[in-house]
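Internal ticket - ligand job 498, zinc ion:
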Amino acid sequence: MGQRLEESHPLSLKDNCLIDRLIEIEDAGVACVKIEGRMKRPEYTAIVTGIYSKVIKEHRRPTDEELLKLEAAFSRQGFTQGYFDGTRKDMFGVRPEKPDRDTEKLYSAARRSYTDSEARRVPITIYSVVEKNKPVTAVAFDGEGNHVTVFGATPEKAVRVAATPEALNEQLYKTGGTPYYCRDVQSKVDPELYLSAASVNELRRQLLTALSDKRAEPPARRRLPLPEMPTGRGQIADPVTVYQVRTLDQLSPELAAMKPEYIYVPLTELAVDMTPVQPFIENGTKVCAVMPRVITDDQEHQIITMLEKVFQNGVGEVLAGNIGHVRLARRLGMRVRADFGMNAFNSYTVDMIRRMGCLSATASFELRLAQVRDMAKSIDTELIVYGRLPLMVSDQCVISHSTGGKCSCQTPAQLSDRKGSVFPIVREFDHRNVIYNAHKLFLADKPEDMYSAGLWGIRLLFSTENARECVEVAKCYKGQGDYRPNVLTRGLYYRGVD
Ligand SMILES: [Zn+2]
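stdout (structure tokens):
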């Protein structure tokens, strides 16, 4: 693709209904409207929040000029109301590879607006006391529970001009160049004392610096005892093998002959046809239905119908990646295995999954293998040890967008990044798309690491492989054949996350 696919269009000010709504909710007493510029350059955020907040505060519609700026700041490709009214068609914009000159101009103006000056937003109150033979005392309050006291020079006896509260107040008011503005300044000054302007300036500087330091202090933390570490089961030296497929086409009699203990097959596929899993069942393999990653409320019924169907056909287990989906499966009396989406990142999460009554947990693929090994596994714990890891689920059918609106999403598509890596995109339930990693996770050559992690199961996750490749990979993990992916990754199993 010559163009890069952008995230969804932002909400539009163009349509009158949105601005009416914003005014409406503000009138209804909503004090805060969140204007979001996710993953955007600061310049973009400055332009968008600047215009939006002005328009909302002034209870008016944006001017033509403001609209032009908004469009330029985004990608000149328009906006959507989709998030509000639910019509989520056409949520993609395409940004040209090179930003054009006008936009760059607009951006640099926006950049100047926030780099050249300090916006004074924090109201403060200052009190000062000037007494004979004592250092000048000044206190600042920020109205958020912070206050600081500083001491300045000791006043001298006035020779000509004596300090007055008015003159002192006026000098303390000057907080330009700082984040503060004075709501009130009050000074008590004994008669016939002299303070140099420089010493007052220094006092104010110290005071505001002290206040900034105070405000930057982290709040006191509560300290509570750590919950007791769950106890793990004994180490398992011989984990079961799980093959997870994405389509029925990947299931072949040859793969069945590998006799994995489990196969995980999408619920949506099993509901269509159970025939391809028969050879597996005959070989003693148990079948577990994989629930879609995303199920909206209006799709619950459809999912329940599918669950009922596969349950009647003898599939008693589901793999759920979301706490909400556990309930759906339970209602029908099915048993649940917890997928990676449940984020089993430590012993406590694994134990929580056990307490939820799940049959097994999937250790997070963001853990290092050593962490997986050291985790207390209070229930059966499995790990994905092969395959393209899913990066993202898109609510939009990216594939049909890339083919001009015609949905051909049965065939996988791909996205490529600047480095030339190719990320497969495949269809999931209801035209959602899953974007997979460009590289395949591969650990078959590290059996000692896999088998010493105390796992109940190791899972091979097949995504874009055809039936023959699935068999080759499966054999390789059994120590047969010499399959190796073209580009492989060890994932985070040795690197970990910070
Ligand atoms: Zn589609």
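Auto-summary: The longest strand covers residues 380-394. Residues 397, 399-400, 407, 409, 427, 431 surround zinc ion (CB under 6 Å).
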